[in-house]
Design a protein that fits this description.
The chain is an alpha/beta fold. It has ten helices and 14 strands. It has a single domain (56-318), classed as Rossmann fold, CATH 3.40.50. 27% of the residues lie in helices and 30% in strands.
Length: 324
């Protein structure tokens, strides 16, 4: 985090601090000259929570606009999430006119429900559900975000957090697209989803951290809580959404035969409500963001597939879905 702060200090060209209140929250804004993002803060439960905002090049506040909230992985932060995606969400934002928000977890982690003692956010039971809920309210009020087009994606710990949020505040989220994660076992065993929600999942079948068939998440010798299996997760949401399978396992073109992966797709649809659950499985894929930055050696996180660009797949999915 200190390294990123130092970079920000060097790169800030002009800063304008703005203080005010919206819906009882304390608001701070800094305009940063880094990839045209804003760095803003709200206070939730006495904690200052910060996030980056990328506004599209053609943004105006006189019309509602869709929003993607992108949650970083464990040990990362908002800037890392931008880099992981190769800034592709920002590029798509400029092309298709939507806002991208990159929040920061406390201590570089999200309280996704696994109750891991070594992660401060989970040990102290930080209310990240409330943070994201308040963040959505803030973006709707200040930036004109369309409440019927609020989308959530995340990587790893951020993916698990997507599932928790889908359980607990589905009424505020239109669809989720978790990458490299499945439902935390604690959430699955102890909670019931508040409502239906469309889900797109992207998972590597050879993920060395989050096991495809469920069980303990591993990083080296550490056991970091349990998740249910990927296919079980897809089937669960299909049941919640009253979806039936329309495609079994359809392989996509192997556009990069040298990356050691093949991508396949399974689709569930509710023909009455238009709810969807889509699973992209990646044969040979690791704990990675397809088409994204390979952030650690392959011996630790496995292979990155270049057969699809996760950002483009996710936006294509989101762009056709509105709140019912």
């Amino acid at each position: 985090m200190a390294e990123n702060v130092d970079k920000l200090t060097v790169l800030i060209i002009a800063g304008l601090a703005v203080c005010g209140t919206i819906s009882g929250l304390i608001i701070y804004s800094k305009f940063l000259a880094i990839n045209d993002v804003l760095h803003e803060y709200i206070t939730v439960d006495g904690l200052q929570r910060d996030f980056l905002i990328h506004l599209p090049a053609n943004y105006t506040n006189n019309a509602t606009i869709p929003m993607i909230i992108a949650l970083h992985g464990g040990g990362g932060n908002a800037w890392d999430m931008e880099k992981l995606t190769n800034f592709e969400f920002n590029k798509l934002s400029d092309k298709y006119r939507f806002i991208v928000v990159y929040p920061n977890g406390i201590g570089r982690h999200w309280n996704d429900g696994r109750n891991i003692e070594e992660y401060y956010a989970q040990r102290e039971n930080i209310n990240d559900v409330k943070f994201i809920s308040k963040l959505i309210d803030y973006m709707i009020e200040k930036y004109g975000v369309d409440p019927d087009r609020v989308y959530l994606t995340g990587m790893s710990n951020g993916a698990l957090m997507c599932y928790r949020l889908a359980y607990e505040i589905s009424y505020k989220i239109t669809a989720i697209a978790p990458v490299a994660g499945s439902i935390p076992l604690n959430i699955y065993n102890n909670e019931t989803p508040r409502g239906s929600i469309s889900v797109l999942m992207i998972n590597g079948m050879n993920d060395p951290l989050v096991p495809w068939d469920g069980g303990y998440i591993h990083f080296g010798d550490k056991k970091l809580g349990q998740v249910i299996g990927v296919c079980e997760t897809a089937s669960f949401w299909a049941q919640v959404d009253n979806c039936t399978p329309v495609k079994s396992k359809e392989y996509l073109p192997d556009t990069d035969p040298n990356d050691g992966t093949r991508v396949w797709k399974r689709v569930y649809i509710n023909n009455t409500s238009s709810m969807q659950v889509i699973l992209y499985g990646i044969d040979g894929g690791g704990h990675t963001w397809p088409g994204g930055f390979h952030y650690l050696p392959q011996c630790i996180i496995g292979r990155t597939s270049n057969d699809i660009d996760a950002c483009k797949v996710i936006w294509s999915f989101f762009s056709h879905i509105r709140k019912i």
